Model the fold of this input.
Amino acid sequence: MRDFEYEAPDSLERAIAILSEMNGRARPLAGGTDLIDHVRTGRLTPDLIVDIKKIPDLNRLEHTSDGLHLGAAVPCYRIYEDPAIRRDFAALVDACSIIGGIQVQNRASVGGNLCTSGPAADSAPALIALNAICVLTGPDGTREVPVHEFFTGPGQNVLNRGELLVEIRLPAPAPHSGSHYRRFIPRNEMDIAVVGVGAAVTLEEDGQTIRSARIGLGAVAPIPLLAVEASELLAGKPASDATFSEAAQAARKIVTPIDDMRGTVEFRIHVTGVLVERVLRQAVARARGEDAPQH
Done:
């Protein structure tokens, strides 16, 4: 591993100042589970690592009437151990429960997972489904970007030099809502998704009709995707297998996967549809109060 300097500012303002002064030669560290490995292998060559774990703004985890405020440096275990988050943001809990192993989850953060910006990031489809917003702060102030617009390419995102992802905001779910995230992997744990699907649904009071839905897809394109057509066609439809199958077909049409050692294009397209159906079915069950996320 190459030599680098290290700083651990205790304020957001100081962290932004340091990153701005370094002009692209510094990297922020939240959990470090990806960053340190990338430095070790030479994929990244920063002159300075800026540890942001001590900044209060990035460690906020607050569940309020308007939704969830999730600091970018909050480790995964704090999310899935919170009963209120398990109830209201089940898809996020599903994702955080399978990012690496237990040791990784004690360090890794959702913010770091987003900023690494891998096409197969587990948190991305869940957050897209939950209509999450990224709050970014830099030398020019603060701006908000929907999670589905945050990614610009493999390992790339909209962050400008000197900017930090401070928190992720998730709106409070409406009554009769449920969500789920699921991935296909060759092994049971500590693997990268071949396909990942997140879905969030809101049902009418009768529990039989879908009022609205959002579907997020991962590992099937250069960036995580919001399946717009598949999401929109669910509105007003019965929560039935036929409806889920229709959404699955729409989702398959927008994916552009690659062949690699973990799966072929044809396989990934097929699995996308299978997971969309299964994830929607589980999200509906949770919206009806029939199931809850398990860690």
Q: What stands out?
A: The two ends are 35 Å apart (CA to CA). The first strand starts at residue 5 and ends at 7. The first helix runs from residue 12 to 22. The chain has three domains: 5-47, 59-171, 177-287.
